[in-house]
Design a protein that fits this description.
globular; mainly beta; single chain; about 10% helix; 11-stranded mixed β-sheet; about 50% strand
Length: about 150
């Protein structure tokens, strides 16, 4: 009986930490935002998409956490990294797409009080084919996931 209880506790703890969300053939993994120091008004949101079906596109991201929410790419021009708003993000058929530091990301512009570590907020993702889904985003310590420098 003790083994079963311990297993059920471990299983429920794992489920509590899982952040995968699924819509249609697309699994959305670990949506997180960079916590901001002090009352910095801008941040970025990252997550990955695993598509087990036909090609799709992320068309928009909306929410109330910031005055403006945009999908961005990072490009290098003359050795300088620059952000650019894009109309949509392609998610390849039977493939993956990633929003990550130094690459594609969702830009939060005009966050009233910044984002403290641990803050949770919803964002609605709209896909061309899969439809709309709301994901829960958690603000995490700056640098916790960074593989590349990403400043705003």
């Amino acid at each position: 009986m003790k083994k079963i209880t311990a297993f059920l506790i471990a299983l429920s703890a794992t489920a509590a930490f899982a952040q995968d969300t699924k819509i249609g053939a697309i699994t959305i993994d670990h949506p997180w935002a960079r916590a901001t120091p002090g009352a910095v008004k801008n941040s970025a949101v990252f997550m990955s998409f695993d598509n087990k079906g036909a090609a799709d596109k992320l068309l928009s991201v909306t929410g109330t956490v910031a005055k403006e929410i945009q999908i961005h790419s990072m490009i290098t021009e003359a050795g300088v990294m620059k952000m650019r708003e894009i109309k949509s993000l392609d998610i390849p058929a039977n493939g993956k797409a990633e929003l990550k530091p130094g690459g594609f990301h969702v830009m939060l512009i005009g966050i009233p009080d910044g984002l403290k570590e641990g803050t949770k907020f919803p964002l609605k993702l709209k896909f061309e084919k899969a439809g709309e889904i709301t994901v829960q985003v958690t603000a995490e310590k700056s640098g916790a996931h960074d593989h590349a420098e990403h400043k705003h």
